[in-house]
Each structure stands twice: as C-alpha cells, then as structure tokens.
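Problem 12. The chain below contains 154 residues. Write out its predicted structure in token notation.
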Amino acid sequence: MDGYDVMSLLDELGALIEGSKSVLGNNQKRQVDINQALGLLDEIREAFPAEFREARIIVKDRQGMIEAAEAEANRIIADAEERAELIVSEQEVVRRAQLRAEEILREATEREHDLRIGAEEYADQILAGLEEQLGKLSNNVSRCRDRLNNKIPR
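Solution.
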C-alpha cells in the first residue's frame, strides 16, 4: 500500500460521514453505518505500518545521500583551504605591494597639490605684474593719443 491508498481510504471515510443523514435535523450529528466506518478504520490501520516502513526506507536513503554529500562537501572544503593557504601567501605579497603603491600615490598626490598651489601663486604674481605693466602702458598710450589729438588740427 502507498500513501495514495491511505489518503483514498481517509477520503472514503470522509465521504461516508458527509453523505450520512443528519440526526433530527442537526447537521452536527450524523447517522453513520458503523460497520462500514469501522471497516475503513481497520483498513487505514493496516495501511499505516506499511507506510511507516516505506517512510523509514526513504529517510534512511536520504540520510545516506546527505552523509555522502557532507563527505563530498568536507573534501571540497579541505581542498579549498589548501588552495586558500597558497593564495594567502601570494596575496600577502600583493597586499604589501598595494599598500606601498597607495603610499606612493598619496605622496605623489600631496606633492602635485603643493606644486599646483605654488604654480598658481607664481602665475598670479606674474599676472599681477603684467596687469600693472599693462596699466602703465595703457596710461602711456592714452597720454600719447591725447597729445597726438591735441596737436593735429581737425
């Protein structure tokens, strides 16, 4: 017998109860053929031990599969740990190199910042001097034009 047989027996018992007549108009109480109901209960009791045996076999098979999977997982983990140890030693070298590269980059960034500020200050000084010279030159040009305009009759 399989699980379907027990379920169909339970369905049959349910149908027997649902199909029975109510007692004195009370739907909560039913007149059931006791022999038929007891016969179904006996069949269900007989089916359950077989069902339990099948369930135990399935559980045992699954337990074996789980144990095999755990053994394989442990083997994979051990292999991965070995590989990880090799990689860690290589990664330590890479990590140190990365730290040194970051330090060099930080120092270069600081130097670039300092040089940029110095260059901007220098450029500002040159431009300020040029502005002053251009102002003087502009004044001279204006004076020369004024003189020229005053001497030329119109």
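Discussion. The mean pLDDT is 87. Students who got a different answer should revisit the alignment rule from Section 12.3.
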